[in-house]
Amino acid sequence: MSDKRDWQADLLIIKTYRKNRTTSINEQTIKGVPVVDVIEYWLQQYAAEKERADELQQALDNPRRNLLFELHNERAKAAAEKDQADYWREATRQGNIELEAAESREQKLKEAIERYISEDMYRDDAEPFFQQVLSTLYPKEATE
């Protein structure tokens, strides 16, 4: 029984035999049923079971493929989200650097204007201008 049998070839042999056979008194039977009928029945049963097994295997394979596809998509989404998070993290870092530089420039401007006003190095009509500049940089509460 170590030889692998081809059930389709066996079924074809049986069908050919049935087509060409003649009723014989010496035909082998099992409980009154010709052996060839028994063999054909079981080959057909095997064919039906093979088809069902193939359908089940396909059903099992498809979810695996779908799961692998979904896993790949989830990994791709996670990588894209990580890239986006990295981009925004870097953009925030750059924004913070620029903000610190702007705050530094603003502080220097404020100090220069305050010094200019406190040292009376301006004309009489310049004071309202500088007071206005200071008030736009900082609200009244912050300058008092």
Automatic annotation (TrEMBL):
It comes from the Bacteria. This is Uncharacterized protein.
